[in-house]
Amino acid sequence: MSIDEEALGEAYDAARAAEDSGDIETAVQHFLRCLEIDPDDHCGVVMRLARYGRATPKAAPPSYVATLFGQHAEEFDDILVGDLGYDVPAIARRLAGPYVNPPARMLDLGCGTGLAGVAFKDVAIGIVGVDLAEEMLDMTDERGVYQDLYVGEAVNFLAEWDESPFDLIVATDVWPYLGDLKPFAAAARPCLTPGGLLVASTERAESGWRVTDTQRFAHAPAYIADTFGAAGLTLVASEPVTVRMEEGEPVPGDVFVLRRD
Questions:
Q1: Whole-model pTM over 0.90
Q2: What SS3 state is found at 237?
């Protein structure tokens, strides 16, 4: 399906201008027009509509995530690590360390430019990377630590994986783009060996899960323990962290290590 990109750009710009001026109802109407023009929602307007109670997304649109990260691939590390202080993969590696039995076959979901692969390469083998943005995978490939790379969405990839299960699945900065994690939990368990580990990060909510003002999802630690426990994964370690800086303010989050029963 072709998109009238000029009309989409005009509608989106008008929505943001109305939003900035405080005219939320006009902004909402323009955002809804964006969805009419582009049902796949490359601009992620459904996440903005959620702020105003006009949408209830359970995940960020894959087209939006792919566009968002694809257009920033080349400067991604400089922005995320250098400017925003992102260090979650290294924290995840430290927290998971006592529970990993190397060498562990590893799946890196939302691998981005390969930061988690670098962090875990001393305990992992045959690392498989998955990301929605093909431009990101071009950067990942240059790391030289991944055996295979796939373009794909995390939950769909897990649900469709029919080869040998993994000893370790890492999903740093993936859950902030997924709200309802029940499908992820259900799909992840069969992809892990018995005793295998899932290591992932969140932005923190007080209860359940919600859309944040920065168009991501936040999850409560209790929600993670309950949701994955019901799916057969036991929480063995967690740690509160600063995920990154946002406009000079720390974004609170958590890193979790879960084991398949």
A1: yes
A2: strand
